[in-house]
TrEMBL record:
InterPro entries: Oligosacch_biosynth_Alg14 (IPR013969). GO terms for biological process: dolichol-linked oligosaccharide biosynthetic process. This is UDP-N-acetylglucosamine--LPS N-acetylglucosamine transferase. It comes from Phenylobacterium deserti. Coiled coil: none annotated. It holds the Pfam family Alg14. It is a single-pass membrane protein. Keywords: Endoplasmic reticulum, Membrane, Transferase, Transmembrane, Transmembrane helix. It is found in: Endoplasmic reticulum membrane. The lineage of its organism: Bacteria, Pseudomonadati, Pseudomonadota, Alphaproteobacteria, Caulobacterales. One of its GO terms (molecular function) is N-acetylglucosaminyldiphosphodolichol N-acetylglucosaminyltransferase activity. Its main location: endoplasmic reticulum.
Length: 151
C-alpha cells in the first residue's frame, strides 16, 4: 500500500487505460493512492484501495448519470488532493467533480490516440491543471503537452 501526505485518486477505465495507469504507479510512490476503475482489478497488491464505478459513454445518458453519482460519492468520500486519469469517461467525470473541491488534476491522454486526442481528452482540456499527450506530434504549445510516454 502506498502511504503519504498527498491523497491521489488514480482513475482509469478498464483495459488499456488501466494498464497505462499501472505503469504510472512508480511515480506515485510516497502518496496515499486510491484507485478507481470500471471493473474489479484482480492484480492489485493486498491493501491497495479500489473503488469500482459504472462505465458509461455519451450515447447512454442513464449510464452517465449513474457514473456521475457514483464518482461523486467516491470524490466526497476520498477528498483527493490530486486526481490523475488516463481516461476515459470516468476520469473526465472525476476531474470535473474533484475540481469543485479544490483538487489539482492531471489528464494523460490514452496511448491509443496516436493521431488525435480522445473525446474525453479534448473535454478535459478546460478542467485539467496539467493536460498531457503521450505522442510528441499531437502536442501543441497551448496543450496538450508531451513530457514522455508510459510505453
Amino acid at each position: 500500500m502506498m502511504t503519504g501526505s498527498r491523497r491521489v485518486l488514480a482513475v482509469a477505465s478498464a483495459g488499456g487505460h488501466w494498464t497505462q495507469m499501472m505503469r504510472l504507479t512508480p511515480a506515485l510512490q510516497g502518496c496515499d493512492v486510491v484507485f478507481v476503475s470500471t471493473l474489479p482489478q484482480e492484480r492489485l497488491p493486498p491493501g491497495v484501495r479500489l473503488h469500482v464505478v459504472p462505465d458509461a459513454n455519451r450515447n447512454a445518458w442513464f449510464g452517465m448519470v449513474r457514473l456521475i453519482l457514483s464518482m461523486g460519492w467516491v470524490v466526497l468520500r476520498e477528498r483527493p488532493d490530486v486526481v490523475i486519469s488516463t481516461g476515459a469517461a470516468p476520469g473526465y467525470v472525476a476531474i470535473r467533480l474533484a475540481r469543485l473541491f479544490g483538487a489539482r488534476t492531471v489528464w494523460l491522454d490514452s496511448l491509443a490516440n496516436v493521431d488525435q486526442l480522445s473525446m474525453s481528452g479534448r473535454l478535459a482540456r478546460a478542467h485539467a491543471d496539467l493536460w498531457l499527450t503521450q505522442w510528441p506530434h499531437v502536442a501543441k504549445p497551448e496543450g496538450p503537452h508531451f513530457l514522455g510516454s508510459v510505453i
